[in-house]
Amino acid sequence: TTKPATTKPATTKPATTKPATTKPATTTPATTTPGPTTPSHTTTPGPTTTPGPTTIPTPAPSKTKHSAFINNSQTGEPCLRFDYDSMSLSGDKLHLNSSTGFSGACIDNTSAIVFTFAKDVNVALVFDSANKTAKLETVTATFGNNTFPLGVFNNNSFSASVGSSYQCNYTFVFGNVTHKINFTVDDVEVEAFMDSNQHGSFNKADSDATCPADKTDKSSKKIGLIVGGIITGLALFGIVLFAVTRCRGRSDYEAIN
Predict the structure, then answer these.
(1) 20 to 30 A from 165, CA-CA: which of 30, 135, 150, 204?
(2) What span, in angstroms and rounded, lies between the C-alpha atoms of 76 and 63?
(3) Which pTM does this prediction carry?
């Protein structure tokens, strides 16, 4: 007996395929080399300008020898200015040729200046600005504890319209006959109510203000005209008289011949 041949089926091993491993591409970042650094524009400040000193206007120079200023306590600017050539104060047994100092104040419508001549001896002038006129109201002399009023000529001396100065080349004498006191001041220019923007300089003098020197000049001119007229009249009369006399002389001479 013949056993049939046994055929073992062929076993086929499946092929194992290894997946291909793909290495990721490594990208090296490009290195950018910076160019030369350009500095940003820097503005250099220009030189610092130092402001110049503030120029404070100075009062116009005095036409006389002395100037007295009283300043406003609020603005610090002169509110009263009194210029004069000479000043004196005399009493029964006293004569002071000049002032040694001054003080004063400006309050509302009143301005005052006090001239000192010696210890406890002074003269005070008080001005008022009523009716837009700077008017000298009172003048007083003080000797120690005693104060004496001094006369004011017609109450117009040193008086001028507000905004103008008073100017007069004359010798003013304010006196008290009873106590034999005289305050004398020569060639005055005064402005009792000044604006701060004047900086101590006078406004134009008031041409309508009363100045005794003007009256004296007018009187002198009138006297001069009168004297001149008399002299001229006498001269004409002499010429006429001479001519008449000469004519008569000629007539008599001809008649004799």
Answers:
(1) 150
(2) 24
(3) 0.61
